[in-house]
Design brief:
Number of helices: 13
Order of helices and strands: EHEHHHEEHHEHEHEHEHHHH
CATH superfamily: P-loop containing nucleotide triphosphate hydrolases
CATH architecture: 3-Layer(aba) Sandwich
CATH topology: Rossmann fold
CATH class: Alpha Beta
Number of domains: 1
Radius of gyration: 17 Å
Strand order of the largest sheet: 3-4-2-5-1-6-7-8
Length: 248
């Protein structure tokens, strides 16, 4: 199993849409048994995949307290080979829970347990630098950081790297990804020229349509520029993880 965290210090950078598309790619393009774990209390990934928590809707945090087994909440999605561990409002208190718990590797242990059943686990992480973020950054094999081509977003990425270095918790490699790119904007072009090797995903109406269709771009618009860019990103991720996609 390899775990991929999609994380940003800032909100509004397209973290959730990238998470859903990468999880779909793991299952549909690479034919790997995959799980999307929604760790954000807003539950946007869960919404996009048409899922929701079972029972009371306050059980997502209970997974970390070990009061509920993850398997009790995991749901299949419309994509064969892709399951969802949905979020709910209880995750809004997860930082406080981790702080009280005092165990820095609880998430890592849960990932190891889930790894018995999955080859790829994609984590849609909440924004900010707090207890949950630190658990994720310690546990993930690869950290995808969406960056809008703007000075503020780049500054947020630099802060993440500085945090990892300062606390010496760089377990996984960090891969910045330019997202919502509009090549008509001079600021975006300047950012791309400054970092030409960073993967790039364009601003696209097909990505916006995900919220209405409840599926990944590659599923309903496979030839669109956004789908092609996301496919290339997934291939790069598999290479970074030391594997080649099974379907080439």
């Amino acid at each position: 199993m390899r775990s991929i965290a999609v994380y940003s210090l800032k909100g509004g950078v397209g973290k959730t849409t990238i998470s859903v598309n990468l999880a779909w790619s793991a299952a549909a393009r690479s034919n790997r048994k995959s799980l999307l774990w929604d760790l954000d209390g807003q539950a946007a990934s869960s919404f996009l995949l048409g899922g929701g928590t079972k029972g009371s809707g306050e059980e997502a945090q209970a997974v970390f307290a070990r009061d509920v087994a993850p398997s009790k909440l995991i749901q299949p999605t419309a994509t064969p080979g892709l399951d969802l561990l949905p979020a709910d409002a209880s995750l809004r208190q997860l930082d406080r829970f981790f702080f009280t718990l005092g165990k820095k590797k609880r998430l890592e242990k849960l990932l190891e347990r889930l790894g018995r059943d999955y080859e790829r686990i994609v984590l849609d992480c909440p924004p900010g630098l707090a207890e949950t973020s630190e658990q994720v950054l310690r546990a993930a094999d690869l950290i995808i950081v969406p960056v809008i081509p703007s000075p503020l977003s780049r500054r947020a990425f630099d802060e993440v790297v500085e945090f990892l270095d300062r606390h010496e918790i760089r377990r996984g490699a960090v891969l910045p990804v330019y997202n919502m790119v509009d090549r008509r904007r001079s600021m975006h072009l300047e950012a791309l020229e400054a970092n030409p090797k960073w993967p790039t995903i364009p601003m696209a109406s097909s990505i916006e349509a995900m919220s209405a269709r409840h599926e990944a771009v590659g599923s309903f618009a496979p030839r669109s520029p956004a789908a092609v860019a996301l496919s290339e990103l997934w291939a790069a991720i598999e290479r970074r993880l030391g594997r080649t996609p099974k379907d080439g």
